[in-house]
Amino acid sequence: MKSNYLFPLKEAFEKNANPENAIHMKAYMKGKFEYFGIKSPERKEIVKGFLKTYGLPEVNKISDIVKESWDYPQREFQYFAMNLSEKYVKKSDTEIISLFEFMIAYKQWWDTIDYIASNLVGELFIKFPEMIIPYTKKWMDSGDMWFQRTAILFQLKYKKNTDLDLLFDYISQLYGSKEFFINKAIGWILREYSKTDPETVKLFVANNADSLANLSKREALKWLERKKK
Length: 229
Known about the structure:
This protein has about 230 residues and is mainly alpha-helical. It has a domain at about 130-229: Leucine-rich Repeat Variant (Alpha Horseshoe). It has helices at about 5-15, 20-30, 40-55, 60-70, 75-85, 95-105, 110-125, 130-140, 145-155, 165-175, 180-195, 200-205, 215-229. Helix 6 packs antiparallel against helix 7 (about 110-125), helix 8 packs antiparallel against helix 9 and helix 11 (about 180-195) runs parallel beside helix 13.
């Protein structure tokens, strides 16, 4: 049974739907999801107006609202749910990780996984660092590439606080992967860390050149190469 909370947002999305945009957005996502066809700047304004009028839900209702948003076929609802969840991370306890795992497990694709990893999981683990090893190890052992991608990318914004031993260990566990989204994630997290510690990244890539996928190496050094040029 759907709650009344999301009905005004659904009406606003429907009112601002752009079928032509929806076709292109669906195609960009390989046909995996439906869209209202609302581009990001306009969607953010709609959500801003919705929250101004109807407010944030009580914290004990956030899980139900996120899961209800996940049930809608249109991707804009999943984007809304992620943005909404971010507002609760710093005031939540450890139990919210089960909601994040739900979000990772269903309707998986890079656009949700990357946001969840860096903005939700990453923030939660800053607050509760004791959760990092148990959960990321479980995700790495799961064999699910999207959970593995989350385990790689949750430190994307950590900069000097990045746990390099953990990151390099997880990267090494994924050597030989043929999955584009795994090898891209490895390159991305290394590239991002290269902005903090370029020498460490260059050395890691050089020392592991035979093990890293070509995609990972290209992505890892991209920022450094661009800066050099």
